[in-house]
Design a protein that fits this description.
Number of helices: 17
Radius of gyration: 22 Å
Helix content: over 70%
Shape: globular
Strand content: under 5%
Length: about 500
């Protein structure tokens, strides 16, 4: 059973005892809003950084005199470490203390942000971005683990919905606000802005958040499993990124993927015999936990793949500016942010199955609408994007809550790490697969002499019409594939998730 034992001095709100009863949890009711605020601030800091840096890339490239390959690694270095270490970060929280790992993650992320802001060369910026990824991989899974540990089950869905809503809202507002600050000041403000947010999150955590861990875990930390998982996921992520970047031989990327798969197989074998596994195999005895993660893989793969392809349509085919394209995505975060909390509360009362079936079906319908490639922006893009946003808003909070509620007592950090790793690494895989498929279809149908997928000849060029038709073929094929993934997610949700609300962990 998870108990809350302070590793640092606590505020009175965090130490006050709670009378037993249906509302009892290890955290007093008065402290729960502060727990929620700390987790929202810290995780939003990591989410915002990813979106703001994306729009800052051209400015950074000019400021540091870097080439495009360097800038790809400014983005991918962060994603590589975030995806590879997420699972380890969650398991370590259960083992050595969720609050402790959460604070370590915030501090590492903040120090790395300072290094990013001060980086005089692109090489040092990439190294600092890798440091940010390590910090984010520690703090993000602890955010959900701390909510799970400090909120009773009948309030957990609402709390997770609030966390998801705030994270979605801040992520959505990050690009327009960050872009304005970058235009007015410098690209370095994208990293300096993390300091005041981190300071508030650290103070709230230190003052109000009680420590929690899995007290049943004794013996050594599973460093062998943690190291093997990190190397394995890192090699797979590196290989997948390489498949998208490599213009010459693909052998190094393929070799990295093979090595990564072998290391993951070794990791699974290690976890089966480890005393304190970072990914407890017992978690997957729960049909709900396993099914929820299958839904996560399929649905977030569909989301990542569709959001990877759509900007090509907006920028290349429709000729929109980067600023206008960024605004087109604003409804996604705003709708998810507005509806996640009420959807979490409804799922608490009515059970997750309906939400985890209807939501993916709407995402599949949205992908089908985008695949049509209609010339009218409002019908061909905006309406499907609104439907996609509604589908994700319906599913985000109920899915996370179902997965976390299905975890064994004391394993919330590991459960959060598994679920976060599933969504992050799935995104990398989806982008690599969808990008390769769209590019392949494009190359097989484009006229000789046409540029690669994502670029079109000039409007008056004789190759323009053929290249446009080939682009639409590749784009539609990719969208159809991700729509099929969303359909499979709906099937998995209907089969594996309970129709009724659960007050106990599913076994």
């Amino acid at each position: 059973m998870a108990t809350h034992r302070p590793l640092f001095p606590e505020g009175r709100g965090a130490l006050r005892s709670v009378a037993p009863g249906p509302e009892a949890s290890a955290c007093p009711r008065a402290s729960r809003p502060f727990v929620l605020a700390a987790t929202i601030l810290a995780s939003s800091m990591a989410f915002i950084d990813g979106t703001v840096v994306n729009i800052a890339v051209p400015t950074i490239q000019r400021g540091l005199n870097a080439d495009i390959a360097d800038m790809q690694w400014v983005l991918n270095g962060y994603l590589l470490m975030l995806g590879a270490l997420m699972l380890v970060g969650g398991g370590l929280g259960d083992r050595v203390g969720r609050r402790r790992i959460f604070l370590i993650g915030i501090v590492l992320f903040t120090l790395a942000s300072v290094a990013c802001a001060l980086a005089p060369t692109v090489g040092l910026l990439i190294a600092a971005r890798i440091g940010q990824g390590i910090g984010a991989a520690l703090l993000v899974p602890q955010s959900l683990a701390l909510i799970t540990a400090n909120f009773p089950k009948d309030a957990r869905g609402r709390a997770i919905g609030t966390w998801a809503a705030a994270s979605a809202m801040t992520t959505a507002l990050g690009p327009p606000i960050g872009g304005l600050l970058i235009d007015l000041l410098s690209w370095r403000v994208a990293f300096w802005i993390n300091l005041p947010i981190a300071a508030i999150a650290i103070w709230l955590t230190y003052r109000h958040v009680p420590e929690s861990r899995d007290e049943t875990a004794d013996g050594p930390v599973d460093w062998q499993g943690a190291t093997t998982a990190t190397l394995g996921f890192g090699a797979i992520t590196y290989g997948l990124i390489g498949l998208g970047e490599t213009e010459g031989s693909l052998l190094p990327a393929l070799a990295a993927i093979v090595v990564g798969l072998a290391l993951i197989a070794t990791f699974v074998a290690i976890e089966r015999r480890a005393v304190n596994p970072v990914m407890p195999p017992s978690l997957f005895r729960s049909r709900v936990f396993t099914g929820g993660n299958i839904v996560t893989v399929l649905l977030y793969g569909a989301l990542s793949g569709s959001l990877f392809l759509l900007p090509f349509d907006l920028l290349v085919m429709r000729g929109m500016s980067v600023a206008d394209a960024g605004l087109a995505f604003l409804p996604l975060g705003l709708i998810i942010g507005s509806l996640s909390r009420p959807m979490g509360a409804l799922a608490d009362r009515h059970g997750p199955r309906l939400f985890l079936t209807v939501g993916p079906l709407l995402v599949a319908a949205a992908c089908a609408g985008l695949a049509l490639g209609l010339a009218n922006f409002w019908i061909g893009v905006l309406v499907p994007l609104l439907v996609l946003s509604l589908g994700m808003a319906i599913v985000v909070s109920p899915l996370t809550t179902a997965v976390m509620n299905a975890a064994e007592e004391g394993k919330s950090g590991a459960a959060s790490g598994v679920n976060n790793a599933a969504s992050r690494l799935t995104g990398v895989i989806a982008v690599a697969v969808v990008g390769a498929l769209a590019s392949l279809v494009y190359r097989t149908t484009a006229p000789v002499g046409a540029p690669r997928f994502g670029l079109l000849p000039a409007v008056d060029d004789a190759l323009r019409a053929g290249a446009e038709a080939a682009f639409l073929n590749g784009y539609r094929t990719g969208m159809i594939m991700v729509g099929a993934w969303a359909l499979l997610a709906a099937v998995a949700g209907w089969i594996s998730l309970p129709a009724e609300p659960s007050s106990t962990n599913e076994a």
